[in-house]
Amino acid sequence: MAFNGKYEIESEKNYDEFMKRLALPWGHSMTNKFTIGKECDMETMGGKKFKATVQMEGGKVVVDFPNYHQTSEIVGGKLVEISTIGGVTYERVSKRLA
Question: What is the reported pTM?
Answer without folding.
Answer: 0.84
